[in-house]
Specification:
This protein is mainly alpha-helical. The protein has a domain at 21-78. The protein has helices spanning 38-47, 56-73, and strands spanning 25-27, 32-34. It has a two-stranded antiparallel sheet with strand order 1-2. Helix 1 (38-47) runs antiparallel to helix 2. The longest helix has 18 residues, at 56-73.
């Protein structure tokens, strides 16, 4: 899977999500789950199964983007497939 995520290092006047480029989002088409630092990567992993209105291919791309961002920011991931992030039955 080809990723679309790229680190975003421009800071300053960026105060709203609308100012962020599509390339910083796990789900770039929907502009969901920004991956701008390690904290956001962990948040995207924790909330992955809560994202609504996305297809399986969107989830596959998002997982690849999260994985790339996790490597960049030094976040450990044990999951190897996006289906592992689905909510587990209690």
């Amino acid at each position: 899977m080809q990723t679309t995520w790229k680190p975003h290092t421009e800071h300053g006047d960026l105060t709203t999500r609308s100012n962020l480029p599509d390339s910083v989002y796990a789900f770039p088409k929907q502009k969901k789950e920004p991956l701008t630092d390690a904290s956001h990567v962990r948040n995207a992993l924790a909330r992955f199964d809560q994202v609504e209105g996305v297809s399986d291919p969107d989830r596959e791309l998002a997982f690849a983007n999260i994985k790339k961002a996790a490597t960049h920011y030094g976040v450990d991931m044990t999951e190897t497939d996006w289906k592992e992030l689905r909510k587990k039955p209690r």
